[in-house]
Amino acid sequence: MDQALQRGNIFSSIPVIFENEIEETLFKGEGFRIDRILSCGQTSPQGSWYDQEEDEYVILLSGEARLLFRDQEEITLCKGEWIFIPAHREHRITYTSKDPKCVWLALHGDMKSGI
Hints:
The protein is mostly beta strands. It is built from no helices and eight strands. The chain has a domain at 28-104: Sandwich (Jelly Rolls), CATH 2.60.120.
């Protein structure tokens, strides 16, 4: 049986002001999840590190952000840039732009096979 077509706009329904980062799951299936993440000046809490169970491929569709990996340099992402973050690679967000807001598209899952 065919599933119904679904469509949308990644840039729709972005609040003018929001206090906390917004993460919305757009699709999920067996072994993967696609999220839209909205940031506007939010950063990781001081001293905390993301240590995710799944690999993450993330592309920054608008804005600018900086990610710090434990024991490594800080990486700046600009509009259109992407990064692959292997599972358990500890990192934190140290900066997200307010104008323009950051719109991220993130794919979470097991991506060990690579390209």
